[in-house]
Specification:
Order of helices and strands: HHHHHHHHHHHHHHHHHHHH
CATH topology: Growth Hormone, Chain: A
Distance between the termini: 31 Å
Number of domains: 1
Number of helices: 20
Number of strands: 0
CATH class: Mainly Alpha
CATH architecture: Up-down Bundle
Largest sheet: none
Helix content: over 70%
Shape: globular
Structural class: mainly alpha
């Protein structure tokens, strides 16, 4: 595996780290936000979902921008959005300014969820693509772990009403690093060919590697798949020939969120408090979730290009169903009067849930979305999948405080039922993509 390929993948994946950090950091601040801004459960749900509104806008609009100006160019701007959001959220004077800066961060998250994995997929030979795109997912998880760890350390400093401000502000540091390292990465060879920069594309392929070792043949295959006479921005997307990847992307993204993953990520301390844990224990348990995510994401990265995307999804779906069913049972049985045993049952089942997600959907979604669309519409396809993902995430995150207040048991039972649906979809509908070039996947999905 070539040095430029590995370095560029790691740098692009820093967008995933900021994505993960921004997603998880708010979990340690919800109590403070409710107190400082005097929020009702409905308003708290909206506050958490405000960033997700930004992610929807970012994911929806970033595809065409990435097609026009290039993947690497967009990553520079995403780094700036993360920096502005971190500083602005930490210095917010009122609820409305806080919502605005969280929205800015959401734009960065939505954009990173599209562009980071897409860029890595487009510079990677097929035999390494699953592992390299999974670096973005690993960094998402690492970012979450850093956020949980940072929240725990800052909370332990007893900074009082400034505690939540520091929790958001520290994100500025990785944003600066991300921006700086991007200067040393190449542009996507597939985007370069689409724009007619064949000589630069050849240079990038020499530095990053090809599927068959023949750079001239690789260039020709990419040119054929792009249908060079077409302008990327004018190629129609919602047409019959793209129906299979469109349906696969929408289904995968919806199932991802209706597992309840973002409810757990955003409200982990709240869920543990519901299960009878004290504040410090709840924050520590949240950090444990980040650790479980990290370990099982590494495990998935090690096997995703050997056993394939579909098997990981099956294993993850079974784990989802078991863990969510146990969590639902615990909340039905203990309600508002958790015993020590009941608390431990919830802790173990949530950890199993995190492991199932990291080894299944979490490892697969961004890899799969970056693979199933042809070169000429990949940016818009990835954008569609990410937008669907974030719309569902906003719904789950906004409604969780309201529904959980009524019944934690029904909430997790609903997620478990959705995962039964996912298992059926994976077994009978999902296509396997391991070890296949991006251009060959296009042929297998019968896209002319």
């Amino acid at each position: 595996m070539k040095r430029t390929l590995v370095f560029s993948s790691i740098v692009a994946a820093l967008g995933g780290l900021l994505f993960g950090f921004d997603t998880a950091v708010i979990s340690g601040t919800t109590s403070w936000l409710s107190t400082v801004f005097e929020l009702s459960p409905f308003e708290l749900g909206f506050t958490v979902a405000s960033a997700l509104i930004g992610t929807i806008i970012g994911a929806l609009t970033i595809g065409k921008i990435a097609d026009r100006y290039g993947r690497r160019y967009v990553l520079f701007w995403l780094a700036l959005l993360f920096f502005i959001s971190a500083i602005g959220s930490g210095l917010s004077l009122n609820w409305y300014s806080f919502l605005f800066f969280r929205l800015i961060g959401g734009l960065g998250v939505g954009g990173a969820s599209v562009v980071s994995p897409m860029y890595i997929a487009e510079i990677s030979p097929a035999r390494f693509r699953g592992r390299l795109v999974s670096i973005a997912q690993l960094n998402i998880v690492f970012g979450m772990l850093l956020a949980y760890l940072s929240n725990y350390i800052i909370a332990d400093l007893n900074l009082g009403e400034f505690e939540w401000r520091w929790m958001f502000g520290v994100e500025a540091v990785p944003a600066i690093l991300f921006f700086s390292f991007l200067f040393f990465t190449p542009r996507s060879p597939r985007w370069l060919i689409a724009k007619g920069y064949n000589d630069e594309a050849r240079s990038v392929l020499e530095r990053c590697g090809t599927d068959n070792g023949d750079i001239s043949m690789e260039l020709k295959e990419i040119q054929n798949s792009l249908a060079k006479h077409l302008n990327l921005s004018k190629e129609k997307f919602f047409i019959r020939k793209y129906r299979v990847p469109i349906m696969l992307a929408i289904a995968l993204a919806l199932f991802n969120q209706f597992s309840g993953i973002n409810a757990v990520l955003y409200y982990a301390p709240h869920i543990f408090k519901m299960a009878g844990f004290e504040k410090s224990s709840a924050l520590l348990n949240s950090m444990g979730i980040g650790g479980v995510f990290f370990i099982f994401t590494l495990a998935a990265m090690a096997v995703i290009d050997r056993i394939g995307r579909k098997k990981l999804m099956i294993y993850g779906s079974v784990g989802y169903i078991i863990s969510l069913s146990i969590t639902a049972w615990a909340f039905f049985k203990f309600g508002d009067n958790f015993t020590e045993l009941g608390s431990r049952v919830v802790l173990v089942s949530i950890f199993l849930f995190a492991a199932s997600h990291a080894f299944g959907q979490g490892a697969v979604i961004w890899v799969y979305l970056s693979e199933i669309f042809p070169n000429r519409v990949r940016a818009r396809g990835q954008s569609l999948g990410s937008t669907t993902h974030w719309i569902a995430a906003a719904i789950i995150s906004w409604t969780f405080p309201l529904i959980a207040q009524i019944s934690g048991g029904f909430t997790f039972a609903f997620y478990a039922l959705c995962m039964v649906g996912q298992l059926i979809w994976v077994v009978f509908v999902m296509r396997e993509t391991k070890g296949v070039s991006l251009e060959e996947i296009q042929k297998q999905l019968e896209i002319d």
